Structures are given as structure tokens and as C-alpha cells.
Amino acid sequence: MQIDARNKACPQPVVMAVNALRSLSGGEVLEVLVNDEVAVENLKRMAAGKGYPEEVRQQGSEWTVVITKQGGAEDAGAAGAGAAPAAEKTISCGISRKKELIVVATDQFGQGSGNPALGKTLMKNYLYALAQQDVLPDWLIFINGGAFLTSEGSESLEDLKSLESRGVKIFTCGICADFYGVKSKIKVGVISNMYDIARMMQEADKVVRI
Hints:
By secondary structure, the chain is of the alpha/beta class. It folds into two domains: 2-68, Translation Initiation Factor IF3 (2-Layer Sandwich); 86-209, DsrEFH-like (Hypothetical Protein Ychn, Chain: A, 3-Layer(aba) Sandwich). Helices cover 31% and strands 20% of the residues. The strands form two sheets. Strands 8-7-6-5-9 form a five-stranded parallel β-sheet. The protein has a four-stranded mixed β-sheet with strand order 1-2-4-3, with helices on one face. The protein starts with a strand and ends with a strand.
């Protein structure tokens, strides 16, 4: 199989390759066309992480990353619309995995450390990449400026809806939504309160703050 990921911004080449690999059986080959050295390195790391042999062929300013899938075919049915299949919430012997909570307190990734426009682009790319993962957090909580990400007009709504459809619970701080005037415009998840947010943060085994 061959896919054309030329002129695709990070992390799209890797996401496209991961989704394509799901439809292949062990021993089949995927060729990914790219014209960005960063994409080449990202694809190589992805292949190495999965234990798949890879080969890079360069022709001028373009590359073909050849990845040979190992093992059997994965379930491709759940990967429709570019979404990765939902991961199991348990590991071997029936032991539940630890609960993970991500708190998003801004609509910019790396706020305060650089360009605001770049920060918004990075946040959009982060949520897109998160929606492609096999293992997902249990909860996503949006507070302060993060409330803009769950409201009407957000470029991340489709990715957040995809996460919600796969079992991720999404909450937006009601005080924050009120403050920014977007409470009536929240389009994904539910509006929550600080009591419940504090409880979820206490109950989570792992809290990631952005």
C-alpha cells in the first residue's frame, strides 16, 4: 500500500501511516511519501516503537519511508474517520489501569513561552494527535482559557467529539465559561463545577496539566 503524506503538517504523516498499518496484515508493506525530513524521522520512530522494519529512500527533496508490518492484522473497523480504535481500560489479569486526567487551562500549548498564534496551532495539533492515540485519558477538564476549546468556533471540536465518542469524559468549568461569555456555546462534553473538578483531580492516579 502507498499513501501520499506530502505537504501534510505534523502529526498527520504519522497518523496517516498508523491508520494505514491497521488495515495491513503481517508481512505487508506500507510506503509513505513525504517531502519533509522531520516527517521522515517521526515515521522512523513510530516504526521502531512498533518493532516494524523500515527503509528510507530519497529522491531529490522527497522521501519514501517503507515500513514492513510485523504480526497479524489489527482491527481496522474502529479506525473509521481517522480515529484510532478504543483501547481497553484493563490490562492482563483483569487489573484496571490507572485513571488519567488532563487539565487544559489555556487555548495555547506552551502559553507564555512564545508566540500566541503558534501556541494555538500547537494546541490544535496536540488535541488532534491525542485523538489518534490507542490509549486515552479518562477525563479532559477545560478551565480558564481552555473553555474556548470546547465552545462554538473551536477548531478542535471534531477531535474532542471523537475523543468523547471513544469514552473520554469531557468537562468545562462553568465559572470559566461564564467569565468568557461562552457558557451557552459549549458544544462538547458537559459544564462542570469546581467541586466536581477538585474531586476528579483527587481521584485520578495521574494528572497532566497543560
